[in-house]
Amino acid sequence: MTTKRILVVDNEEYIQEVAKICLETVARWEVITVSSGKDGIIKAEAWQPDAILLDVMMPDMDGITTFEKLQANPATKEIPVILLTAKIQASDRRRYAQMGMATAIAKPFNPLELAGQIATALGWSLDG
């Protein structure tokens, strides 16, 4: 089985580091991090990750706008997107699902459960 590739788009360096360390250690996935929606779109197009973890609240271009741009791009529209958000309610989850996002994970997240949450949302196995 090939190693899954995850792109983490979050303007908080601490979140990037925690997600990267956990996903590499727990799931043995390859992880690249970027700090902005603009960089996320560029990296997603070039690197073609298996999934994108995308922060909602970012300066310049928020996660929703970034997602819409990823969806509008034929090179990235098939990449599953999982939102990372501090604000999540049932109505938000429904709206995100209707937009085509795989799921949303609440921040702060449990680092040891993050890989499992991603795998469950995308139907992946962690026994890889």
Automatic annotation (TrEMBL):
InterPro entries according to UniProt: Bact_response_regulator, CheY-like_superfamily, Sig_transdc_resp-reg_receiver
Biological processes, Gene Ontology terms: phosphorelay signal transduction system
Lineage: superkingdom: Bacteria
Residues annotated with 4-aspartylphosphate modification: 55
Entry annotated with the keyword Phosphoprotein: yes
Occurrences of domain Response regulatory (ranges): 5-122
Keyword Phosphoprotein among record annotations: yes
CDD domains associated with the record: REC_RR468-like
SMART domains: REC (SM00448)
Keywords, comma-separated and alphabetical: Phosphoprotein
Protein name: Two-component response regulator
Protein's organism: Tolypothrix tenuis PCC 7101
Taxonomic lineage: Bacteria, Bacillati, Cyanobacteriota, Cyanophyceae, Nostocales
